[in-house]
Design a protein that fits this description.
Layout (H helix, E strand, L loop, with lengths): L17 H9 L4 E7 L11 E10 L4 E11 L5 E12 L6 E5 L8 E10 L2 E4 L3 E3 L2 E9 L3 E10 L2 E10 L12
Antiparallel strand pairs: 1-2, 1-11, 2-3, 3-4, 4-5, 5-6, 6-7, 7-9, 8-9, 9-10, 10-11
Length: 179
């Protein structure tokens, strides 16, 4: 029996990259839920959780800005309000997303990390963000309509994890917040 192997050539089939999937979801985010796990058991953020909302704005097709507001709650029910402004920027090559913090305004962004594909379902920071002697590394993934952002913070006095779930739903299920 003669066996013939013919290569398959896909000419008009376009696989949607995971970067494109994340980028499409970023534009739909409406709320967030955070959980923090810190090495310092005396810290307010040790096993703290937060909920909040996200107002999304777009500048062209490659820049999305998150205006986040919410409330952190410690295990003993103390609370702290938070506000953040983050900017997500899609690279010209469509395979990298840059995350910056706009704590000093749009003219002075603080570069945090650039995300690039690690696996078919995960984006990972190319290099850690350095803040003093601490290193912040991050991964992005999805879970049924939401985006999962996980930070690992390592340093002389830190061994922390911060998990954020950005939801495309108006309120995070099971949580209420006023802001």
């Amino acid at each position: 029996m003669l066996k013939v192997e013919t290569p398959i050539i896909l000419t008009s089939y376009n696989l949607k990259s995971f970067t494109a999937i994340i980028w499409g979801l970023l534009d739909q985010v409406q709320s967030l839920a955070l959980s923090a796990f810190t090495k310092d058991r005396g810290s307010f953020f040790h096993n703290a959780a937060a909920v909040g909302r996200v107002e999304v704005s777009r500048t062209g097709s490659r820049v999305i800005t998150f205006h986040e507001t919410g409330l952190w709650t410690s295990p003993d029910r103390q609370t702290i309000d938070f506000r953040n402004i983050y900017q997500w920027r899609l690279s010209d090559r469509d395979d990298t997303i840059r995350l910056t913090h706009l704590r000093y305004g749009t003219d002075n962004p603080v570069h945090l990390v650039d995300f690039t594909p690690l696996r078919p379902d995960t984006l990972q920071s190319v290099q850690p963000h350095i803040c003093g002697s601490d290193q912040y590394s991050a991964e992005l993934g999805t879970d049924g309509g939401g985006i999962l952002l996980s930070w690992r913070i390592r340093g002389p006095s830190k061994n922390d994890v911060l998990n954020c779930r950005y939801s495309t739903e108006k309120k995070t299920p099971g949580h209420t917040y006023e802001n």
